[in-house]
Amino acid sequence: MVSVGTVLAQIELALHAVHVPAPELDVRWVATSELLDPAPFLEGGEILLTTGLETRGWRREWAGYVGRLADVRIAALGIGTGLTHTKAPAGLIRACEARGLNLIEVPRGTPFVAISRRTAQLLQQDEADAARETLRIQRRLTSAAAKPDATAAVIQTLAQIVGGAACVLSTDGHAMLGPLGERGDELLTPDVVKEIRRLRDHRLRAASAISTKAATTVVHPLGLGGRPSSYLALMTPGRVSDRQRSAITTAVALLGLIGEQERTSVDTRRQLRSRAIELLSTGDSRTAQLILHIEQQTAVIPAHLRILRATGARDDVEDALATLEQQRLLVADVADELCVVAQNGRASSLASSLADTGLLVGVGEAVALDAAATSYATAGHALAQATTSSRVVQWERIVGEGPLSLIDPKRAEAFATSFLGGLDDEQLETLRSFLRHHGSRLKVAQELGLHRNTVRNRLEAIEAALPGSLDDPQIRVSAWIALQSLPTPAE
Predict the structure, then answer these.
(1) Residues 6+ apart with CB under 8 A from 290
(2) Neighbour tally for 399: CB within 10 Å
(3) Is residue 399 located within the same domain as residue 476?
(4) Residues 255 and 158 in one domain
(5) Which helix or strand (DSSP H or E) is residue 410 part of?
(6) Cα gap 309→386, rounded to integer Å
(7) Are residues 381 and 412 in the same domain?
(8) Reduced to 3 states, what is the DSSP secondary structure of residue 111?
(9) pLDDT at residue 290 is higher than 90
C-alpha cells in the first residue's frame, strides 16, 4: 500500500510534515473539502486537503473538527497555506497532537490536484506491483507443490513469504509437519491448539487469527470437502498484509489439492491394513504379513501382541485412526470398529489414550502372532462389556470375574428368577451349600446342622423344582449362575 510517508517523500509536491506521528498509515485516496464537517463524506484512509476557507478565526473549534476526522480514521489532514492561513494554525497543530492525527502543510505553489494525481499514480503503480508480486508468489507456491515432498515444500515457501513460520497440525492439535521457518519456535502455543479445537465444529467454513503487538498467527482448516484433514498454522511479524493474505489463500488451496491426492493413497493403504487385520482375525497371519510387505506398508505386526477394538462417535474414530497411523501401528477401520494390533507392552497405554478421546475400548488376550484370531475375538467380548463409566475393559479382567461378567445383568436376573422361582429361602440356602461343597451331602448336613436324611429330602424337593438332576453338571452350572444372579432383597 501507499503510505503517508510515501506521499510526503514526493519531492515535486514540496509537502511539509508539521506533525506526522504515524507515517506508515495506508492512503486509500485524496479528498478535498471546505466543509466544516466533512467526516460524514469520508470512508477512512484518505488524505483530506483543505484551505480552511470557513475556519478563519478558529481557536477552540479545531478540537472538534480534528476529533471528527480522527474518528473516521483519515490517513492525514493537509492544510493549504497562503490563502486563508499563512501557516498551519497553532490550534490545529495542538488538536492534531492531542488526537495523534497526521498533519501536513501544503504550500501555496502546490495545487491540490497535483497531490491527487501523484497519489493516484502511486496507488496505480502499487496495485500493479502487488499484482506482479501476487503472481510471483503464486508461481513460487505452485512450483513448490510440484516437488516430491509437496506439502513440506509449500509450507517452507509460505514461511519464507510471510517472514515467520508455518506448520501443519492434526485435528487434535499435534504437529504433523514443521514448524518450518526462521521463527518456528514462536508458533506452537496453547492458543493455537485451542483455536483448532474451537474451529473443529465449523469444519471448513471458518479460520481465525490471533493478533498481538508483535505478530499475527493464522489458523486455517485444510481440505476440499467435509471435515478438515488437518490445519495450517502460520505466524508473521506484525499484521497480515494483502500480499501475504493472497499467499495464504493460494497455499491453502494447494495444500487442499495435495491432501486430496494423498488421501487417495491413504485410502488405498487403509483398505490394505483393514484386509490385513481381517486376515489376522481369521488366523491367517502369513497372508496378512504378505499384504503389508508387498505394498511396502510402514505398519509392523508384533510377534507378541494384543488386539484392541474400539467404538465411538465417527469423528472420534477417524481422528484416532489418523493419530495412530503416524505411530507405525497396524490400525484400521474394520466393520465400523477401530482395530489396533499393538505390542503387548503398549496395549494398556494405547487403550487409555483412546478412552481419553471418548472411545469405548476392549483389550484382547495377549498372544503370539499365530494366535491373533484369539486376541481379536476376546477383544470383541471385552468391548461388549465397556461402558461410559468403564471405558476400557481388558479380557483378563473378565476372566478373573468369571462367566457372569459376560452376561447382561438384566438377562441374568430374569434367568435366575425363572430357574429358581420354585424354591423358598430354606431350599436356596441348602442349594448354595450343596454346590459350595461339590455335592457332598455330609458336609451340607454339617454346615447347616441338619440330619443327613433332612438334607436328602430337601435336595429331592429342590431337584423336583429344577429342570433336571443335580448330578447333571449342566444343571449344577446353571444353578450356580442363577444363585449368583438373583436380585438382592430390598431391606
Answers:
(1) none
(2) 15
(3) no
(4) yes
(5) helix 409-420
(6) 11
(7) no
(8) coil
(9) no
Q: Are 466 and 457 in contact (CB under 8 A)?
A: no
Residue 38 sits at the vertex; the CA angle it makes with 33 and 43, to the nearest 5 degrees, is 105
115 with 106: CB under 8 angstroms?
Answer: yes
Q: Is residue 140 part of a domain?
A: no
Indicate whether 384 and 423 sit together in one domain: no
Q: Which amino acid is at 236?
A: T
Residue 448 shares a structural domain with residue 389 = no
pLDDT digits (tens, 9 = 90+) for 9-56: 999 999 999 999 999 999 999 999 999 999 999 999 999 999 999 898
Count of structural domains within the chain: 4
Round to whole Å and give the CA distance between 390 and 62.
73
Local structure of 398: helix, strand or coil: helix
Closest CA to 66 of 87, 36, 45, 46: 36
pTM over 0.85: no
Does 179 sit behind a cis peptide bond, omega within 30 degrees of 0 on the bond before it? yes
Burial of 351 (0-12, 13-18, 19+ CB in 10 A): buried
89 in any annotated domain: yes
Q: For residue 207, what is its C-alpha cell? A: 479460520
For residue 136, tell me if it sits in a domain: no
Q: Which three cell numbers stand for residue 473?
A: 453338571
Cell reading at 109: 505553489
| 146 alpha carbon, distance to own chain's centre | 28
Radius of gyration of the chain (CA): 39
109 and 171 both lie in a single domain: no
**Same domain for 255 and 166?**
yes
Kindly report the number of other CB atoms within 10 A of residue 65's CB atom: 23
Is the residue at 491 inside a domain?
Answer: no
How far is Cα 394 from Cα 400, in angstroms, rounded to an integer?
10
